[in-house]
Design brief:
The structure holds 3 protein chains of 3 kinds. Chain A has 7 helices and no strands. Chain B is an all-alpha fold. Chain B has 3 helices and no strands. The chains are: A mainly alpha, B mainly alpha, C mainly alpha. Chains in contact: A-B, A-C, B-C. Chains A and B meet through helix 1, helix 3 and helix 7 of A and helix 1, helix 2 and helix 3 of B.
């Protein structure tokens, strides 16, 4: 294999992959846009049923974890391997707490009968069913991407530890970081669209 | 074209710069939450989206290094956003005029 | 000349033997051939199903199958043809084999990702087969899987759409690989305006593959989610809008037709200059129009939805935009024909297929304008007029371009030449059969015969009978074509490095090429269609 050490090329490839993820979520935002246009009052009303505090906490967690991921690359390139590992561990921790929060949020909604095809939603005003339907699909797909991102970061952490990722060859860490930032980007839009349209 | 010696070395962001970006993001998050507790009429939605777009731009430009990337990545990113804008925008030819 | 071993003899990674040298290969040329056999398998299967559909429609009422089977048959025919043949065909086979060589390099940028793309393609096909025999059998929804029927029908929709999802991933990753290769692995002396037109067409296609495919991915995931979780996002009784499904579906599936045709046009843009022994007319125009088609094709999806119930404004806007897309397409046809004018033309099987392509695709494209105009479309939507239109473009267009590519690059890939006489007979039979098969459908459609219907009214009998005759000729012609190509392995007439007098880089390397493609550094001409250094070619069989 002779494409060898073209790190710019590898990075270009990663960005191309990120575009596919952006468009993947984009399709869901198309649905959101169309339905928000149709049910503006319903979206505002049912947005109130979502917990703004947990939503805000999750936002802060992901923003912080994006910072630590970016910082981990700076650390590695400045030959502070320990610091790099520390930052990555913090990012993973933030991701884990995010998922735990999500678990409690969803759990609470399930407990009060607000889950896909529940009796409460089937008999509810149409705007309510659509709002929560979109909520579960979008946050669900996002949560799946958090898990994938955490997996990539964990692999990167191990490889930094084993010196398979170094200050000269850090494409994998960089690309895992880009994926994680994408997860953050999506949430930056999801948070206001569901929790703050009031 | 890439020179044979291209190792992909790129601009390195200092911890200070990264921390400043994080601070800006947290401030903007605070503002957008504040906005949601106040009724600004028709301005709520556009303002919220504008703040979200700003936050997204900060993450893209600095955490993701888009500010320091070459033409290929910059142009293709803009192209992707244009396609997304068409996807969402053109749906309104239908939905808004039913 | 020292006999450098061909890529058939040297595996990559080194040391692999037997079947592993193929199934674990990183070599783009081997991957291209692995795609070739898989794609041909699916093509013949779907062609046969199409033939069975035609036999069913030969007479009124039941001919050979029940109505339920008929619905699954046209769904299966569409799904296989579109997702397993027309979309991947030319890029995966000829793109993989020739894009790196045309760029003067030794492989794609991500060879292992390339291998993954192949496995995803195979997996998608396997899942489609499994869905035939499980949980209600193959869907009867048509390849468009419209809601609410796709959500309610008892057939195995989830597995089939998941197969399409997997195939989409294969397509996306191939696009990603090609884009990165064009940007980062071109020969250093090859600027953008020296890239051959086939590679340019693959580059434009790759962007559409990359950006549009995720839309179908999410759409299919939503269908699966609806079937399993019953959320109601497209259910009017619970606030949903089924037309939004159609918007999402066509947001991919319209750009997909440009994924289908652009590489085909790229093939024609290579063949015409070679057999005219003359530089292509309007190289820049073809480059810009290729990119233009890729961009404009993303603006017009709702022209499939004029009768769906969407707003009149949308009907008007999308119809207007649809007419614009015709312009860059026509530019290409003018360029090809202008290249032939006063050229030194040599007739060969690839050129014959290319000429037939120009005619059939033009008819297809012009009938597309009839459909793109909202008024006439109200009359012919969902009739056999549409069926004829897309067969002229996808079959007469991409299909015949695929056949042209097979005949053009066969000697390069295998180092052997096929029999010309049988090739000409097969091409003629297929073309005549094609016209008798599909032209009646335009008339049947205008007279009102709906598509996807199991049965029809007596006034449509004659047209269907005629179409059946054409179908037999078409099927025979294609089978003869394939048999002829397979027979070339028997006779093994050796082919030289440049049997056609082509000027792109693949003709400067041995047939078949060595593992790393080039023995010495390739010379990049200032203009890609410069024939001044191409030697006269040996006489043809």
């Amino acid at each position: 294999m002779t494409s060898g050490r073209d790190q710019t090329g590898i990075r270009i490839g990663m960005w191309l992959f990120l575009y596919t993820e952006i468009i993947l979520f984009g399709g869901l935002f198309v649905l959101y846009a169309a339905y928000f246009h149709e049910y503006p009052k319903a979206f505002a009303e049912y947005g109130k049923e979502l917990n703004r505090v947990i939503g805000a906490a999750n936002t802060v967690l992901l923003l912080a974890s994006s910072f630590t991921v970016a910082a981990s690359i700076t650390a590695l390139r400045q030959h502070s391997k320990r610091l790099c590992l520390g930052f990555l561990a913090i990012s993973l921790g933030c991701g884990a707490i995010f998922l735990v929060n999500k678990y409690f949020e969803w759990g609470h909604k399930f407990a009060i009968g607000l889950y896909p095809n529940s009796k409460a939603l089937a008999g509810a005003p149409p705007g309510k069913n659509i709002f929560f339907g979109l909520y579960y699909v979008i946050t669900g797909l996002h949560g799946l991407h958090v898990i994938i991102g955490m997996t990539l970061l964990a692999i990167s952490l191990v490889m930094v530890h084993n010196n398979r990722i170094t200050a000269q060859r850090y494409a994998l860490l960089e690309n895992s970081g880009l994926y994680w930032h994408l997860v953050d980007l999506i949430w930056i839009f999801v948070f206001p669209l569901f929790y703050l349209i009031l | 074209m890439k020179p044979a010696t291209d190792t992909g070395e790129q601009h390195l962001l200092s911890y200070t710069a990264l921390a400043l970006v994080l601070a800006a993001l947290l401030v903007l998050t605070g503002i957008t939450i504040w906005v949601s507790y106040h009724d600004l009429g028709a301005f709520n939605v556009p303002l919220t989206l504008a703040i979200a777009s700003t936050k997204v731009s900060l993450v893209l430009l600095f955490f993701m290094h888009l500010k320091y990337e070459g033409r290929a990545i910059t142009l293709s990113f803009v192209g992707t956003i244009c396609f997304l804008a068409i996807m969402i925008g053109f749906i309104f030819w239908d939905v808004a005029y039913r | 000349m020292a006999t450098t071993p061909s890529f058939f003899e040297t595996p990559a990674p080194a040391g692999l033997t037997g079947i592993k040298a193929w199934l674990l290969t990183h070599d783009h040329k081997r991957l291209g051939l692995m795609y070739l056999w898989a794609v041909l398998f699916w093509f013949v299967l779907a062609l046969t199903i199409g033939f069975l559909i035609r036999i069913e429609l030969m007479t009124m009422g039941r001919t050979i199958m029940s109505a339920g089977i008929y619905n699954s048959a046209f769904t299966l025919h569409g799904v296989i043809m579109i997702f397993l043949f027309v979309i991947p065909g030319i890029p995966a086979i000829f793109g993989n084999f020739f894009l790196p060589i045309q760029l003067g390099t030794d492989d794609v940028f991500f060879p292992r990702l390339n291998l993954l793309s192949w496995y995803l393609y195979i997996l998608g096909g396997v899942l489609a087969i499994v869905s035939l025999f499980t949980a209600g059998g193959f869907p009867d929804t048509g390849w468009t899987f419209y809601v609410p029927f796709s959500i309610g029908t008892k057939h195995n929709v989830p597995l089939t759409v998941f197969a399409a999802f997997v195939l989409g991933m294969s397509s996306m990753l191939t696009g990603l690989n090609f884009i990165t290769t064009v940007h980062r692995k071109r020969s250093p002396e090859m600027g953008w305006m020296q890239i051959p037109l086939f590679t340019w067409s693959l580059y434009a296609t790759a962007w559409v593959q990359l950006l549009a495919t995720p839309v179908i991915s999410i759409t299919l995931l939503l269908v699966i989610a609806e079937r399993i979780l019953n959320i109601g996002l497209f259910d009017p009784a619970r606030g949903g809008d089924p037309i939004l499904y159609q918007h999402l579906f066509w947001m991919y599936s319209h750009p997909a037709v440009y994924v289908m045709i652009l590489p085909g046009m790229g093939v024609i843009s290579e063949i015409i200059p070679t057999f005219s022994r003359k530089a292509i007319f309007g190289y820049r125009a073809i480059v810009y129009s290729s990119m233009g088609i890729a961009v404009a094709g993303s603006l017009v999806w709702a022209h499939h939805m004029y009768t769906s119930g969407m707003s009149d404004t949308a009907v008007f806007v999308f119809s207007l935009l649809t007419f614009l897309v015709a312009i860059p397409t026509a530019v290409k046809v003018f360029s090809w024909v202008s290249t032939l004018y006063k050229a030194s033309i040599e007739m060969t099987p690839p050129l014959l297929y290319a000429l037939v392509f120009i005619y059939l695709f033009s008819v297809g494209g012009l009938t597309g304008l009839v459909l793109g105009a909202a008024g006439p479309d109200i009359h012919v939507h969902d009739t056999h007029f549409v069926v004829a239109h897309f067969h002229f473009t996808m079959f007469g267009g991409t299909g015949f371009a695929f056949f042209a590519a097979l005949h053009y690059w066969w000697p390069k890939m295998f180092g052997i030449m096929y029999n010309f006489r049988r090739a000409y007979i097969a091409a003629t039979l297929a073309t005549v059969g094609f016209l008798f098969h599909y032209v009646p459908m335009f008339i049947l459609g205008l007279k009102g015969m709906p598509r996807r219907y199991y049965d029809y009214l007596p006034q449509f009998s004659q047209g269907n009978g005629l179409a059946a005759v054409g179908g037999v000729l078409l099927f025979s012609g294609i089978l003869l074509m394939l048999i002829n190509l397979v027979l070339s392995f028997r006779k093994r007439t050796p082919a030289p490095a440049n049997p056609w007098g082509g000027c792109t880089l693949e003709w400067t390397v041995p047939s078949p090429p060595p593992l790393h493609n080039f023995i010495k550094t390739p010379k990049i001409m200032a203009y890609p269609y410069d024939f001044s250094e191409v030697a006269p070619t040996p006489p043809k069989p």
